[in-house]
Write the structure tokens for this entry.
Amino acid sequence: MYSYTAAEYWQWAYKVSPADLPAAEAMLAEVREYLPSLEDHERRNTEGLLAFLERQRR
């Protein structure tokens, strides 16, 4: 759940509030940190979400 909240926050900050982008990036860093501890299906879903966000950056 946290990863989806972080992703939504990042998307909003990226489009609407660049001042909030560092906080959103920090939340995504936490998500990346916890990837190894997730169950396989949760890890794959979260990795897909992070990849989607990375594509939006470009």
